[in-house]
Amino acid sequence: MTGDLPDLLAKRAELSPAKVALEEVATGRTRSYAEPDARAALAAAAMAKRGVGAGDRVAVLSRNRIELFELLFGCARVGPVLVPLTWGMPPADLAGLIRDAEPRLLFHDIVDAQT
Q1: 13-25 residue pLDDT tens
Q2: How far apart are the C-alpha atoms of 41 and 83, rounded to whole Å?
Q3: 12: how many CB neighbours lie within 10 A of its CB?
Q4: Three-state SS at 1
Q5: What are the pLDDT digits (tens) for 23-72?
């Protein structure tokens, strides 16, 4: 984790790894504390491998999903600023935001056009 802040997710995963940490209301999916901790570590490693570091920007175009929070914790471990983008925004508007933010990486999920 960057700076002097403790990694609260890692600590919680150590204390109660099997306890439910996150739940998606829309789908009912849940993750224990150990799962997002491990996935945040994977996200942090993937970003670091691609040269992402403190002060860089990482954009994410996603609905509110568990993976969004795992990416947020991954960013906290490597130091980039997470730039959330609104998935329902028109492409031309998104393009302007992306140009302005100049993200080093863009994460996205595939959204069904009919939902």
Answers
A1: 999 999 999 998 8
A2: 19
A3: 17
A4: coil
A5: 988 889 999 999 999 999 999 999 999 999 999 999 999 888 889 989 99
Element (H, E) at 30: strand 30-32
Bridge partner residues of 81 (DSSP):
57
In order of 3, 13, 43, the CA distances from 68 in angstroms are: 22, 18, 11
CB contact at 8 A, 1 and 76? yes
User: Where would I find the H helices in the chain?
Assistant: 8-15, 34-49, 66-78, 91-101
Q: Count of CB atoms within 10 A of residue 50's CB?
A: 12
> What are 77's strand-pairing partners?
none
What is d(CA 110, CA 63) in angstroms, rounded to the nearest whole number?
Answer: 9
